[in-house]
Amino acid sequence: MAKVKYKKVGSGIFFSPALEADSPYELLDVVEGRTVVGKKVRCVQSKELYEVDVLAKPTNTQLIDQISAAFREIGAWLVANAPNNPPRQRAALRAIRRTIKENYLADDLDRDVAWIATADLGQRIAFLRDNMTDAGRDQMVKFAAEIASSGSQVSETDAEFIERLGTGLGMPREAVYDIVVSAIQKGPASNAA
Fold this sequence. Notes:
The chain is of the alpha+beta class. It contains 7 helices and 4 strands; from the N terminus they run E-E-E-E-H-H-H-H-H-H-H.
């Protein structure tokens, strides 16, 4: 039996299970004798070897970008669904700034509202369903309910959107329903500027 050797054929950044953090990796051909018999991924920092499918998991940076974009899109959708509702617009701006920790301006919200009409939020939600924690899913649905209850009652369309969001994220329908009912019972939130 020939000795197994590894030949570097690529590199990049991945989420290292050993480090539970983003790390550089090397993509390696597994060579027996003169024959390539497979591929492995080696974490440069921990030196652990993994199957290539480890590269399918998003890096922390990619996941944070996807989550931030989803919060922006959810806020924009809820604002677009309630035109001429300044309290909802203010609530969305505050909630988005608080959540994504960026200086998100009214012009940014206007651009996102204009863009959301053509967006496929379903693809982003499907990605997040497979990569978010339960607490993250819950936070996202509560975020939507907070905005929906600002400045007016939660509309049937808003409630349906929040239900699709929560169940799309993989939350039990009952948990989503409880969040929506809580927002409806709470009524319009105070929206001081």
